[in-house]
Amino acid sequence: QVQLVESGGGLVQPGGSLRLSCTASGFTFSNYAMSWYRQAPGKERELVASITRAGNRPNYADPVKGRFTISRDNAKNTVYLQMNSLKPEDTAVYYCNGLGPYSYWGQGTQVTVSS
């Protein structure tokens, strides 16, 4: 059974940090490029960051460049998103996605940035 399980979301004040994790099972993690997406209320889901199968060449959406870092540990079947200098506009449900022979999605984790 394929699963992507996100964790690490929560409520944080502006300027704070969170680290999201997404642990995969049921498929060969190292064969999949991994990405983080987010969806704010009333908005479409958008790509936040992506990373290749080997863990190099990360890519970031312009709004998060310099603040977010994506990484992966293929030995642990886990992809991470370190989020620093968080802003209220980062508030959204964050989803991880695995893209390879198939596309897999997690259930999402809520991130709320508010004072």
Keyword list:
115 residues, mainly beta, globular
Structure description:
The chain has 115 residues and is mainly beta. The protein has strands at 3-7, 10-12, 18-25, 33-39, 46-51, 59-60, 68-73, 78-83, 92-99, 103-105, 109-113. Strands 2, 4, 5, 6, 9, 10 and 11 form a seven-stranded mixed beta sheet that branches. The chain has a four-stranded antiparallel beta sheet with strand order 1-3-8-7, with no helix packed on it. The protein is globular and about 40 Å long. The termini are far apart.
Short précis:
This protein is mostly beta strands. Helix content is 0%, strand content 51%.
Reported for the largest beta sheet, the result is:
7 strands, mixed
Low-confidence parts lasting 5 or more residues at pLDDT below 50? none
Structural class: mainly beta
Write down the Rg: 13 Å
How far apart are the first and last residues' alpha carbons, in Å?
40 Å
**Judging from the principal axes of the Cα atoms, what is the shape?**
globular
- Helix count, DSSP H or I runs of 4 or more residues: 0
Q: What is the total tally of β strands? A: 11
Instruction: Give the helices and strands as they follow along the chain.
Output: EEEEEEEEEEE
Topology:
Blueprint: E1 3-7, E2 10-12, E3 18-25, E4 33-39, E5 46-51, E6 59-60, E7 68-73, E8 78-83, E9 92-99, E10 103-105, E11 109-113
Parallel strand pairs: 2-11
Antiparallel strand pairs: 1-3, 3-8, 4-5, 4-9, 5-6, 7-8, 9-10, 9-11
